[in-house]
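Hey all, sorry for the wall of text incoming. These are the four entities for the joint prediction.
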Amino acid sequence: MTPPTETKTPARATTTATTKTTKTPAQATKAVTLLDVATRAGVDRSVVSRVLRDDPRLNIREETRERVLEAVRALDYRPNALARSLRTRRADTYGLLIPDFGNPVYASIIQGAESAAIARDCVLMTGSVGAGAEQAAHHLDVIGRGRVDGLLLAGDHTDRAQLDELDRRGIPWLLVNRRLPRARRWVVLDDEEAAGLAVRHLIGLGHERIAHVAGPRDADTARRRMRGWRTAMRAAGLATPARAVVVSDYTPEGGARATRELLARAERPTAVLVANVAAAIGTLSAAAEAGVRVPEELSVVAVHDLPLAAVLRPALTTVRTPLERLGARAIELLASTAPDAPIEEVVDGELELVERASTAPPAASS
Amino acid sequence: MTPPTETKTPARATTTATTKTTKTPAQATKAVTLLDVATRAGVDRSVVSRVLRDDPRLNIREETRERVLEAVRALDYRPNALARSLRTRRADTYGLLIPDFGNPVYASIIQGAESAAIARDCVLMTGSVGAGAEQAAHHLDVIGRGRVDGLLLAGDHTDRAQLDELDRRGIPWLLVNRRLPRARRWVVLDDEEAAGLAVRHLIGLGHERIAHVAGPRDADTARRRMRGWRTAMRAAGLATPARAVVVSDYTPEGGARATRELLARAERPTAVLVANVAAAIGTLSAAAEAGVRVPEELSVVAVHDLPLAAVLRPALTTVRTPLERLGARAIELLASTAPDAPIEEVVDGELELVERASTAPPAASS
DNA sequence: TTGACCTAGACAAACGATTGTCTTGTGTTA
DNA sequence: TAACACAAGACAATCGTTTGTCTAGGTCAA
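and here's what came out:
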């Protein structure tokens, strides 16, 4: 393994771990640097760097290149990311801010973003904002210290002021699954079509009184899904009265509350489109509580498909959305677009109705 | 705002964003550096650094200190984290590897770790490993490039060889919610007691035939929960025959499969302890499928409480575990312990039975 | 034989912060 | 008034890479 020409090789290159270094708190074993490799190969460190980066301006004999690569292998050298980033002014890191790790919808987005980042040889730093603004402040602060090349903002936190702040600091950002008035950088799903698909499924089954448990008023996705519901209903000649809509949030509790309200109303719907799968869990729960059978008395369909939907009782009919692709596309767009160029993209394709047990034709009785 | 002594103040310090810089791809606006601040305050940059870090070896006139701080504020200076880390050899960043973002149990751990990291003024980089080993390899590679001060390993991926590799590279690691034979660095929950608590609850309700849907054979948590089940049963003088146990995994599908198997057996149990809340979803599902009513014919209790448990039908009785504290404690231990010192900690307290609708006394008929 | 021109690398200046060591001026003491 | 101490900062090396520019030696043609 070790070539005869070795001069300054640290003992660390052996395979057995040298764990008995109680002193130093951080890096126990000193890391291998370019200089170590260069010394061993008998060249300048710039040569090593250029060999590794395939710099076309380097002229090198095949024999020397081999020697360099051999030294790299022997020492198990890997470049220090911090030093490189400092020099190149690229962190090869992207940030992703989400409201909450517990939300499975964002879990899918993270997965997609992570894969895309890995594919670009970058890393992803995901932070949750939660309710408290102080956590958001910490993340934005950290990000302002040169640690990321750009920031993905998923969910309904950030406001215009924060975007301005990011602009001022020269940090490219992109809204994910969300739009904001004067912010022309976003990537979203085709929420309107997703809702429409669900409604047409219900209409196809024979439903006419189709209610909508909508998302939060200020959520952009909620507005688009509501529009999809309305458009599909009208296209079929069905009425969309105000009483057919209950505003809720994207949580099981919110969905349950909204559904209770809906079921208490005079003219009960025979089907309901729930704007989000998490809220639909609450809908199933509230229906069971009220003794309303699903799907016999109430068909339920929700936007977003998740593994969870299949194991609920009854198994939930959903519209599958390309959440992972959304996350992946977000990274790609952020990485490949100039920081001040507008990005306005609807991730296409892959919308599909996943029919399970929660939808059925309405009962014969009108 | 701007003092009269200004000499080299960049125009960038004004409030309106200078967004029209289509040229530069990365950092549109050049970042403020120590030198900028120093020049403005009329001192050396070392002075600025020392003022900001409260270096006790710095002697400075109050008046000068004020001038420095004023310049820092005026320019909205924030230190470059990369440069600092390069110099100090501390990244102020910790890594966390989990199997899958979709798993809500890990979501809680992440939340806890994130809060603890923020409290220490660090950042957390969370990566998922998933099924593919190549993603794990990417993460471990990235981590080896000096980007993190330590690594939290949650879940059942990493093997001994990878730990050795980390040791060799001098990267401190800590197993979270898991132990491994020759790895004396872990922090876990009191799984045995959690399982015992659940079993005693069932026994208190009058159950005697209490089955156990266990976790994977090679999962350390699964073994400890099984031991808790067995110990509590025996303490009450109840039998723990092999047929009362079905091994499964921590997914709804696995839980459903195991439960179907269990329900098909000759002597059906009146209650079941499911090792994990996700698997318990499958249990409920399989019971409903088989026409077995919960809790009338089968009581179900699971380890780990999550918001989800409350909205299932029937609402699931669980044992609440301090998952967030587990994550938080992991960061604290990793940050405050020498890299080669052993860490063997069971996060204490906070175990609590959350009684909901899925448990009840057994039916009168034996 | 003297430029001209390659080839194969060497040199050195960044990137932005931290930190050990010097220097300068002022006051104090002997 | 010479020696000294101290206050208040200045200097400069360093962390590990990247990258623009140089140079020593060789080859080739005129």
